[in-house]
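Try this one yourself first.
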């Protein structure tokens, strides 16, 4: 449980759908995730580079990926999928916790990292979340994951605790 959130909202964000050209010149479409996206997400995670897995997620085997996705995409969870053509290349999700806040998880496939897709996905996800009345979001990130920490700071997250091997961060929407 995270107990401290910023007093002020981070700002207004635009909800999906959003289309943009990433830093590599590819046209990326961001859409709110739907049940029909499930198989494309399974395929994305099956192909996910093991070196980019953090804190044990996403799982490695397809059966575990399916179980994990079923768990995190049900109920009041909110998600955004990044599409390049017919391929899912990124997935950001907010999973409700028992305290009325939401935990963030975000993944971008290796070939699409470093092209501002993660930033755009978070902004779209936060727009969707604001539309649905979500106010508090938290995450944990491995302290040596500098690119992710920069991304989170850039969209408005603040550090809460960084005394362990993970950094806890929060944002108010």
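Now uncover the answer:
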């Amino acid at each position: 449980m995270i107990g401290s959130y910023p007093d002020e909202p981070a700002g207004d964000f635009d909800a999906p759908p959003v289309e943009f050209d990433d830093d590599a010149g590819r046209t990326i479409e961001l859409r709110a995730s739907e049940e029909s996206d499930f198989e494309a997400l399974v395929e994305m995670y099956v192909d996910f580079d093991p070196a980019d897995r953090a804190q044990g997620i996403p799982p490695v085997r397809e059966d575990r990926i399916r179980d994990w996705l079923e768990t995190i995409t049900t109920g009041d969870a909110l998600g955004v999928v990044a599409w390049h053509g017919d391929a899912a290349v990124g997935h950001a999700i907010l999973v409700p916790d028992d305290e009325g806040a939401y935990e963030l998880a975000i993944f971008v496939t290796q070939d699409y990292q470093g092209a501002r897709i993660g930033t755009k996905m978070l902004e779209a996800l936060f727009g969707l979340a604001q539309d649905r009345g979500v106010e508090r979001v938290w995450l944990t990130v491995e302290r040596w994951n500098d690119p992710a920490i920069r991304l989170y700071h850039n969209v408005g997250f603040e550090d809460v605790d960084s005394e362990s091997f993970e950094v806890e961060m929060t944002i108010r929407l």
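Discussion: Residues 117-131 form the longest helix (15 residues). The two ends are 18 Å apart (CA to CA).
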